[in-house]
Structures are given as C-alpha cells and as structure tokens.
Specification:
The chain is α/β, with parallel strands linked by helices. The protein has helices at 47-55, 70-79, 94-107, 125-140, 162-170, 177-183, 205-216; strands at 7-12, 61-66, 83-86, 112-117, 145-150, 153-154, 158-160, 188-192. The N and C termini lie far apart (33 Å).
Length: 220
C-alpha cells in the first residue's frame, strides 16, 4: 500500500540560523570523518541536498521554502530536482514558511504533504517507508496525519492530509504548528520508528557536532 497520489515534500529552510552562526541548510551532510572524502551528490553534500534525496523516493514533488537565503539555496534545489518558493517575510517565523510551502504544494496539485524543517536529520529509508504505509492506512480510517516517534519523543516529517493542511492554512500567521497539531490531536497518529536521529537537535554548532558524533559512534 502506498501513500495517496500527490504527496509533496515541503522542506522549511527559510530560517536565519542565528544560533548556528551559518545557514543550517548548507551544513555538510552526512558529516564526514576527518580526512574522508564525501560521496558525490547532485546538489553538493549539504543538509538540504541530503533531505531532498531522502524524501524524494516517497513523494511526487518537492518544495523548498527559502527566505533571504534563496539565492544560495536555489542552485541546490534545482540540481536535486526540487522547486524553490520564497517566503517574502521569513521574519514572521517558521509557521509563515509552512503556510507558504503548503500553498505551493496545493498549487502544484498535491493533496498531501510530507513536512520537515531542514535542520532535522533525514531518517532512514525504512522509517520513511513505514510512515508512508501508515499514512495511507490512517487516511483510510479517517485520520488526518501521521508523524514519527522514538522513545516517546515526537519528530519529523509530519505527513499531513488535506484536512490538516486546511487547518494549518486557516490558522493566523501568528499561530504555530504545535498549537494547530494540539487542536487536531485526535486526528493524528504517531508511528514508532527505529531512528535515534529523530531526537537530535541541531540549533547550535555544539549540537551539530554531537549529532555527527552520534552517527559515527559504534553501534552497541
């Protein structure tokens, strides 16, 4: 069973990355061991290109929402086969980028979205497949969305059907995704995934280094 036709990836990449000190979309990903040459990638080895590549097998289209960094991100999006859309006022916050991205998905004929901020490390293909399958089954039962959970912590991507998309778009731009999801909680199902990276935070250089070390640490 697969997700419904028209599933569009929406990658939110318009943030200022002020705590990181550099654009998080352009961080090297996957992190490489010292002295190791990164594997070649169409859009370079960045967090944005890795996120696009990870989501594309499970969607029909990909939208990247950029802000003042649009000129830097446009070549990566184009090389990876994604569409870039501009949030004209990213200072309004991430929820404004979400609404821009969802409108762009609907304009492209999509009826569902796989939503993630660019600073969330991509999950494994196994986890994406589990989420895609669970999403199709959830929609058949009348639910609106699914999202992953690892050790009790929720994460991304959020797979949202038309009803949750409409709830996001009806909300004022001053709202936030968490508030809307809380109001629609009875319509969202959380799917366990085996990815410790789901709980990773990458808002600062220290958190990025910790996540990189987690990738290379020996498996117990």
């Amino acid at each position: 069973m697969s997700a419904p036709p028209g599933l569009c990836a929406v990658i939110l990449a318009a943030g200022a990355s002020s705590r990181m000190g550099q654009d998080k979309a352009l961080l090297p990903w996957p992190p490489s061991l010292p002295g190791a040459a990164p594997a070649p990638s169409p859009g370079g080895n960045t967090l944005l290109s890795a996120t696009i590549a990870a989501l594309q097998p499970f969607v029909e289209a990909t939208v990247v929402v950029a802000g003042t960094n649009a000129e830097r991100l446009a070549p990566i999006a184009a090389a990876c086969g994604a569409s870039l859309v501009l949030n004209p006022a990213p200072e309004r916050g991430q929820f404004s980028s979400l609404q821009v991205g969802l409108r762009a998905a609907l304009d492209r004929g999509s009826n569902a979205a796989m939503i993630t901020p660019v600073d969330c490390p991509p999950l494994s293909a196994t986890s994406f497949q589990a989420l895609q399958t669970a999403f199709a089954q959830a929609l058949e039962r009348g639910l609106w969305a699914v999202a992953p959970v690892y050790n009790g912590k929720h994460g991304h991507p959020l797979l949202a059907g038309r009803k949750l998309i409409q709830a996001f778009l009806r909300a004022p731009v001053t709202s936030n995704a968490r508030k809307v999801r809380r109001a629609c909680a009875q319509h969202i199902e959380y799917i366990p995934v085996p990815d410790p990276l789901l709980t990773a935070d990458m808002n600062t250089p220290e958190q990025y280094a910790t996540t990189a070390a987690q990738i290379f640490s020996p498996k117990s």
